[in-house]
Amino acid sequence: MNIHELLTEETIFLPLETGTKETIIAQMTEGLKLSGSVTDAEQYVRDVLIREATGSTGIGFGVAIPHGKSSGVAKPGLALARLSEPTDWDSLDGTPVSIVFLIAVPQENVGNEHLKILVALSRKLIHDEFRESLLNASTKQELIDILKNM
Amino acid sequence: MKKLLAVTACPTGIAHTYMAAESLQKAAGEKNVPIKVETRGAIGIENELSAAEIAEAHAIIIAADTDVDEARFAGKPIVRVAVAQGIKIPGQLIDQALALQASTASAAPQGGSSIGSSERSENSFYKNLMNGVSHMLPLVVAGGLLIALSFFKLNPEEGTFFANLLQIGGAAMGLMVPILAAFIAFSIGGKPALAAGLVGGMLSKDLGAGFLGGILAGFLAGYIVRYLIKYIKLPKSMEGLKPLLIVPLLSVFIIGMLMIYVIGTPIKDLMDALTVWLQNIGSGNKILLGAILGGMMAIDMGGPFNKTAYTFAVGLLASGVYGPMAAVMAAGMTPPLGIWLATVLAPKKFTLEEREAGKAASILGLSFITEGAIPFGAADPLRIIPAFMIGSGLTGALSMVFDATLRAPHGGIFVLAVPNAIGQPMMYLLAIVVGTVVTALLVNLFKRNKPAIGVGTK
């Protein structure tokens, strides 16, 4: 299993012009649609925002991980955006967000391999060095390399 | 060193579950606190906490937005928060969990909250006990039923099918007490305690101390191992020897010596004294003798009292006295039969596993395999065994009153098929039925409504 199957050129936004939670998620979803992960963008965005309403996915330290398990998703996907400037995300620790990972998972459980990568990513995000390296990466390829070696 | 456990879970099971787990592990690492985190996410349950680990832990942190099967933590101090808090304030949660333990422990001696702490220790006592009982149960059921099947042909010739059945069943029954002791020890001391528990249980069986000796051996082994692990300090370079060599060697040696000298010798003396006592009562007072033999059959179901009563009755067969044998067999049948009837009369008082075991117990009872009742007696000895003893004592006394006789030393209900083996068969059956009903009613009267710790309920 390769990170390439989850994260592609189309789903990396470096940088992404910031806006509101909703516009950021909508823009990133377009990338996931291009990569073939999301098939019904409207449905998927709705599911992500429903999840967001139950509690912010701003996990602190400047990172947010909006995610949705949705019937609008055909295969697991991952989008990554570095925002043009720190943006409010109702984070747990109140800090504005600079990095957004948008995770798409199909309604029906598919191969665990994909899920395991997302799980590994979630765990990794807790560590400062990992987040630093994401913030400091200057090209898409560099970001992919960081995630590949995760 | 205080050990902590944690469980994390969230509805999607992709992100928060694992981030909370990672945060807790990271914070614990910085504080040098050992922690194990069970994650319940989209890829299933990982790092599942074992009964032994739960028993050993000082406190449990639950950072979850979904159900995490909390019943297994009964009696343990718990810090319960939303999963997000596990990510946000892991350090605080760990401090809180460590302090929780300290405050309840230090509060106990002041008397104020001593009820809470004694409840806790009672709960962990039953939890450890039930861990042994539930692992023993399959052996009792399989062994008992195979022995019962072998009774289709009493006294089969060696090497025949039925003799082999008896041998297989005997092997399973022989493992019963060692496994009981081993898994009590495991529940207390984890994997390192398994060896001492097994050996202690085996010695209990060999020394005739029965399942009560096995329970004692299990608890001793578990706590000995815990103590050894805690107090043996070795230089870093030799630390690896501790779990592989030092703890197993010392714990098995200590439990073995304790079983032989502290438990084995008194048991032998006890059995000798009981035999003399029974001989003195003799046939002078038939009813009293029947009641005493009956009670002895039920008190330890395979331990010294039971063995002495049985041996006494078998010994009398040679002198042509057949009454006590009848009383002993009838009294040995009523505990499992009574348990079966109790599960039928009040199914709500028993777990599903117990109700299933109750069905098997009926067949074991009919076959005079008293051990079928052990899982129930062992699970709650102070309440259940008195019920067994009263029912069995009554049956023993009735059997003597009715002048029932028995010329075979085993076989249960199947002896009826052997011509002239039983004298007064109808009255004999009546004695068994009365004892069964009384046992069942008393079990349900004494038994607590729901098992304290439902190891067998999940």
UniProtKB/TrEMBL annotation, chain A:
Keyword DNA damage: no
PTS EIIA type-2 domain location: 5-150
GO CC annotations, alphabetized: cytoplasm; membrane
Cell compartments where the protein resides: Cytoplasm
InterPro entries: PTrfase/Anion_transptr, PTS_EIIA_type-2_dom, PTS_IIA_fruc, PTS_SugarTrans_NitroReg
Any matching Pfam family: PTS_EIIA_2
PROSITE patterns the UniProt entry points to: PTS_EIIA_TYPE_2, PTS_EIIA_TYPE_2_HIS
Any one GO BP annotation for this protein: phosphoenolpyruvate-dependent sugar phosphotransferase system
Keywords: Phosphoprotein, Phosphotransferase system, Sugar transport, Transferase, Transport
Highest taxon, organism lineage: Bacteria
One MF annotation (Gene Ontology) recorded for this entry: protein-N(PI)-phosphohistidine-sugar phosphotransferase activity
NCBIfam families for this protein: fruA
Descriptive protein name: PTS fructose transporter subunit IIA
UniProtKB/TrEMBL annotation, chain B:
A Pfam entry, by short name: PTS_EIIC
GO terms, biological process: phosphoenolpyruvate-dependent sugar phosphotransferase system
Keywords for this protein: Cell membrane, Kinase, Membrane, Phosphoprotein, Phosphotransferase system, Sugar transport, Transferase, Transmembrane, Transmembrane helix, Transport
Cell compartments where the protein resides: Cell inner membrane
GO molecular function, one term: kinase activity
Keyword Phosphoprotein applies: yes
Transmembrane intervals: 133-152, 164-188, 208-229, 241-264, 276-299, 311-340, 360-378, 385-406, 426-446
Domain PTS EIIC type-2: 125-456
InterPro entries associated with the record: Bacterial_PTS_Sugar_Transport, PTS_EIIB-like_sf, PTS_EIIB_2, PTS_EIIB_2/3, PTS_EIIC, PTS_EIIC_2, PTS_IIB_fruc, PTS_IIC_fruc
Any Gene Ontology CC annotation: plasma membrane
Domain PTS EIIB type-2 span(s) in chain numbering: 2-99
Topological type in the membrane: Multi-pass membrane protein
Identification of the protein by name: PTS fructose transporter subunit IIBC
Organism encoding this protein: Paenibacillus monticola
